[in-house]
Amino acid sequence: MMQCPTASLRAVPPALTVKPRLLRHFLLFLLLALCMLGFGYVGYHLSEEAGIRQLRDDGERQLELHARAVESEINRYTYLPSLLELESSVSHLLLNPTPYRRNLVNHYLEGLNRRSGARAIYLLDTQGRVLATSNWRDADSYLGEDLAFRAYFQEAVQGRPGRFYGIGSTTGEAGYYLAHGLRYQDRIIGVAVVKVKLETLQERWEKARLQAFVSDENGIIILSSDPALRMKAVRPLSAEDKERLARSLQYYWWALNEWEPLSRQVLGEGLEAISFAASDPVGAAEGEVAYLAQTRTLDDTPWHFTLLSPLADLRREAVIQGMLAAVGFALLAFLLIAWNERRKVFATRLAAREALLAANNELERKIAERTQDLRASNSRLLAEIRERKQTEDNLRKAQDGLVQAGKLAVIGQMSTSIAHELNQPLAALRTLSGNTVRFLARGALDTASTNLAAINELVDRMGRITASLRAFARRSDDHGQARLGKAVDAALFLLHSRLDRSGLTLNRDVDDVLLAIDQTRLEQILVNLVANALDAMSGQSDCLLWLSGHADGDTYRLQVRDNGPGIDPANRQYLFEPFFTTKPGEHGLGLGLTLSASLATAAGGSLAAQHPETGGTAFELCLPLLHRPEGTASTAP
């Protein structure tokens, strides 16, 4: 009964059974994604509306508080201009100006200004010329200045209160001007003006980290917690407005650039959401920044106070709420899908159990067949492994033999130098021993003792030569550790006779580090590289040899460089091939570089040739670094 459905399913092409299922899964995933987005948007929108309501309520309280502070700061000086009507010396000066009366009023205004805390108090005649001022002692005093063009004077001389915010034409300093027409017998005989600085309000806003500004009747920001916003227009100015403001000199020579938001959404009376580019002075470091702007008209002035409340935190919280709503829906959908899939699993498990029993019987039969095949294959593999191990042992022995042959070849090349090194102390020993016998016969014991000491030193020297040769000639293996400084000293000692004859200048700059290679093998590599450099520079009068190295992570790079004629580009690809050499037959077998590269590779390193543009040849030996002693310094003989 279970075989019929299976046969019918196998008869259907795979494309017709797989594609509808994939399409259903894709449509289900798309539907879930759309639902998640919908729930997230609804959560974000509801959270944003609630946050804006809360921010608006908090902002209204702050708006009222700070607006009243601005009004209080402005109104505290309104009584001062009219106070001058009570001073008889002021009326006398306006009616009959004399130097004595001007000096008397100057002193009075100076004291009054000091007690009131205003920026300046000054007196104008009906023609707009300053007769007396509190800053008469200063270099930039207003005394004698013609201010008839100022709007506050024109208002006050007609009997109306003069209120004006502008930048002084003398000092270029901004201030709020309060003007009052002074009367005598029902006629105006002059104008009293008080200049007030409102920068203390800006300082308070900055300390409170409040983002707010005050704009005047022309839409120009005159006070702001951000100094970069001062003298900017909050609305577009026409060419006629700009020309009128420029002629009035109210803002001196400021450009009055526009400060327009990127977007503006009116949310109610005096309430709107605005956004600015991040490069704007109130902006953030990048992107776009949004604010909730609340504006209120200030009493007794045509000014407007605007409070900016950042919406970044509010929108960030709204995004979080939207994400939580989307994640909650996704979790619920996942639980429902998991429950549905679990139901399907229970339904199909019963049917799968019978198919599993049949498949298990078939599998056991196939396993028995495969096991037999695997046993036969295993036997063949074991035989191949034994054969490969034997081959590797033979290769290792052959390599060790080549290494030893290379050492003996180097020793054979150095035989003349070694014989010369030994002949010199032997000849000296013969002479010193004969002289010592004669000195003993004569009783010159001090001279004989000196000769014997010299003989002892010569014997030690010969012992060091033979010891170095024995150490260099003995066999070694792939494992071990080597001290680089010791290996360099040993290689230079073995070749020092050739170094002396060549008149070579040696530049040595290596660290005494510990490398992962056998000491003897490192010495053999260095002997081969230095000997090749000496052969390349033979016949030159200015022979230079550089031994330099540096640590590069867990690897130490040692470079052996000469200033010889270099290697012909046609021969560079064959440098590390066995039995390839550019030397005459009696001077080399072509195995030195091959063996050196093989020894470096066996130790986990490498040997490579470089061809500097300045000439010569450089070989770079890279070996694993075991330990760098503390306080190691480069040395040069």
TrEMBL record:
EC id: 2.7.13.3
Keyword field contains Methyltransferase: no
Membrane topology: Multi-pass membrane protein
Swiss-Prot/TrEMBL catalytic activity: ATP + protein L-histidine = ADP + protein N-phospho-L-histidine
Record-annotated membrane-spanning stretches: 26-46, 318-339
Domain Histidine kinase intervals: 417-627
Coiled-coil regions listed in the entry: 353-380
InterPro entries in the cross-refs: dCache_1, HATPase_C_sf, HATPase_dom, His_kinase_dom, HisK_dim/P_dom, HisK_dim/P_sf, Sensor-like_sf, Sig_transdc_His_kin-like_C
Primary site of residence: membrane
Broad enzyme group: transferase
Top-level taxon of the source organism: Bacteria
GO molecular function: ATP binding; phosphorelay sensor kinase activity
Pfam families: dCache_1, HATPase_c
Keyword terms, alphabetized: ATP-binding, Cell inner membrane, Cell membrane, Coiled coil, Kinase, Membrane, Nucleotide-binding, Phosphoprotein, Transferase, Transmembrane, Transmembrane helix, Two-component regulatory system
One Gene Ontology cellular component annotation held by this UniProt entry: plasma membrane
Subcellular location: Cell inner membrane
UniProt name for this protein: C4-dicarboxylate transport sensor protein DctB
Source organism (scientific name): Metapseudomonas resinovorans NBRC 106553
